Every structure is written in C-alpha cells, then in structure tokens.
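Suppose a colleague, Dr. K., hands you the sequence of a protein chain of 238 amino acids and asks what its three-dimensional shape might be. Before reaching for any lab equipment, you can write down a predicted structure in token form. Begin with the sequence itself:
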Amino acid sequence: MSALKYKRVLLKLSGEVMGGEKGFGINVTEAESIARRIREIHQMDVEVAVVIGAGNLWRGKQGLERGMDRATADYMGMLATVMNALALMDALERLGVMTRVLSAIEMRAIAEPYIRRRAIRHLEKGRVVIFGAGTGNPFFSTDTAAALRATEIDADVVIKATKVDGVYDSDPKKNPQAVRFDHLSYIEVLNRRLEVMDSTAITHCMENHIPLLVLNLWDEQALKAALMGEPVGTLISA
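The predicted structure, expressed as tokens, is then:
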C-alpha cells in the first residue's frame, strides 16, 4: 500500500447526513453507512476524529425567527449534536470499532468530558473520537468547532464530507453549467463567499495552516483515495 498523505484527520459531518433522504431525525441505516466509511479508513491505520452537526434534529434559526434567545437555541443545538454522536458511536462499535464520545458540555453519564490530552491519547490508542456539543459555547457553529478541534489535536486535514464531489462556483443541482474547483485558497473562499464552512472556521484554518478538503462521502472510493493523496474533491489551502 502507498504511503498515507494524512495520518490524523478531522471528519466534519453535517447533521443532515444522519437523517437520510428526509434529512430529519436519526436514520439508523444512514448512521451504519457512515460508520462503514469511517471503519474503512480506520482500518488503514488512520487516526479519525469526528465533529457532527445537528441540523437533522434542531434548527436554531427557526427558534430565532420566533424570538428565542440565541444562546438557548445554540445550547439546544449542542445537545442535539451529542445525540448524533451517540448514534454514530453505537453504529461504529457494532462494527467492532472502539469509539469514544467527548462532550464540551459535561454529561458524565453518557460521554467523557472534553480534555485535549485525553482526546489525543484515545487517537493514539486507535480509537475513533467523536466530539460532541460543539465548542461548548453559544454563538459558534459546529464548523468552527471542527476547525478548533482539528487545531487542538494537530490534525493533518479537515475533511468536509458532503453529498457533492467538491466546491462549485454555484449550486450544481440548480445550474448544470456550474464549475468545480480542484483547488482554492482560503482567501478565495472568503472573497467569493462560497458556502463551504462559515467564515470563522475558514479563517481559523487559514491562521493555523490546516488544509480543508471537501469531498463526496457517498463516493465509495473518494475518502480512501484522498487519504492516499490522490486528487479528489476540492482542496482549500494557502
């Protein structure tokens, strides 16, 4: 086997991937499908950490439109990410992959509290680590949580797993003439206002020199090929 390009990765998943076609709720079949993808790269001796969103369970925007307090809406979203993390943990462990959920909000009965050195130690021991509850603070997205955790664990890359094969200049589902980018700089993403991750997350990756790779998780070969350094998806770097 060729040498791995990335040894330690932070996989960023949207909550919607857990919801299946409807995009809402937790679809056990989808959780198992994601778990199989993660197991495949884990078996390549890649150290895998995961941050997952909560859009399948809670949309804070809906609450804000009704006058809900922003911090309350964000805390509800953080709790929803823990539910997704537990579902993914269960799917992974049923496949024989040792997994730990670390939560930024303490809930010791169901998850370990997030401690940076503990997270790194779990990775070194070959466990998949799932980070729950975002950063633990309101006003920050799970995109920003992914960028922050990637920095803290010294990840080689943040992989943004989507349902399209990279970043386009417009929505490829609406515009058949949309152009896919093979490579972008952080500044280009910010200036073009491309909806890859929020600007705070992109800026954090830029300042800490963490490459961001956007690819299609449902392409059976994409994730493995990317880890081997093959040209897959869209790479965002300096």
